[in-house]
Specification:
By secondary structure, this protein is mainly β. It has three helices and 19 strands. The protein has two domains: 2-206, Lipocalin (Beta Barrel), CATH 2.40.128.630; 210-291, OB fold (Dihydrolipoamide Acetyltransferase, E2P), CATH 2.40.50.
Length: 321
């Protein structure tokens, strides 16, 4: 299969580096406005008799995934043999900048392509891929370093359907939203007609991994529902513009999570605002913690599916100040 890039502009040379600033990025499936329409102007309308010159061509592997383009880089997600490959090339020249691969053994039930279906998603300094077998991965745009990955098939109990994971994720604020699927443990066969869902049809992942930069002193007291305990920690996100977020953990979660300063983790959070004496306060409450990269101790039960909603709030008995 050959990927062909043509010059569709009206008068600029294919070697004109100013095109990096004049071309509109196509950083996700269906384009920047999710309507499959380019925002560029001056596009050639007469493509006859060689009037649409080829700039460069490149052989690509198996799959249905469309390339994505951002900041002068094109990202191609395909399959080569038993490996899924994300390749970053210069969008003007096609010259390879980096590539990243991982093994895959996906076989389509109907003998369609065994390559990825979902397009890469570029968001700032990160590019995300969702493989046909359900591997969701985040890479650094500049050099391809793997930042994090989730095997959604394993984590959510996905039973392979006839087409594999085929929907491109979307970024909304700090969330990376993917259509995952999933079934309870020991599910019946797909063909039985008795397959049940696991409440994880669509899953939102926090797109940034955070590092614990400070743990505050534990607080305790007596509320109308009895004694309470809480402890806050400061989580600093990664990326070009790191942010610090104060996250609170309540009760037994303090001991269960065992958060340590300096470790990298991902927290499932519930955000809640409450009124107290005429003023409003907002809590960012962690109700599940998974360890990320680094030397942190493994989190017990990390192979279990993440709950789809926060548990009942045992701390909702007034603000403990």
């Amino acid at each position: 299969m050959t990927l062909t890039v043509c010059l569709a502009g009206s008068s600029l040379s294919a070697q004109d580096s100013s095109r990096r600033n004049q071309s509109a990025d196509w950083y996700r499936f269906l384009g920047p406005n999710l309507n499959a329409k380019s925002t560029e102007i001056g596009i050639r309308t007469d493509w006859s008799d060689g009037k649409l010159p080829i700039v460069w061509q490149r052989e690509v592997g198996d799959g249905y995934s469309m390339p994505s383009v951002g900041e002068g880089r094109m990202f191609i997600f395909d399959r080569h043999g038993d490996k899924a490959r994300l390749t970053c090339v210069d969008s003007l020249t096609g010259e390879e900048i980096w590539k990243s691969e991982y093994p895959t053994d996906y076989v389509d039930h109907y003998e369609y392509s065994t390559g990825p279906r979902a397009s890469p998603v570029i968001d700032g300094d990160r590019v995300y891929t969702f493989g046909v077998e359900g591997r969701l991965r985040a890479h650094r745009v500049t050099d391809g370093e793997l930042i994090w990955e989730v095997d959604t098939g394993k984590k959510f109990g996905v039973v392979q359907n006839f087409f594999g994971a085929g929907s491109t994720p979307i970024v909304e604020g700090d969330l990376l939203i993917a259509m995952v699927g999933g079934s309870p443990p020991n599910p019946p066969a797909l063909w039985s007609g008795e397959l049940q869902g696991n409440g994880s049809g669509i899953v939102a992942f926090h797109k940034l991994t955070g590092k614990v930069v400070q743990i505050l002193e534990e607080q305790s007291g007596e509320g109308r529902n009895g004694p309470w305990r809480k402890q806050e920690f400061i989580l600093e996100t990664q990326g070009q513009y790191p942010k610090q977020v104060c996250v609170v953990q309540w009760g037994d979660n303090i001991d269960q999570f065992g958060v340590q300063e300096g470790e990298t983790l991902t927290a499932a959070i519930d955000i809640q605002s409450r009124e107290y004496n005429g003023r409003w306060y907002t809590d960012v409450k962690a109700w599940r913690v998974d360890r990320g990269e680094g030397d942190a101790a493994p989190q017990p039960s990390s192979d279990e599916p993440w709950p789809t909603a926060a548990p009942p709030d045992a701390s909702d008995d007034g603000l403990p100040f």
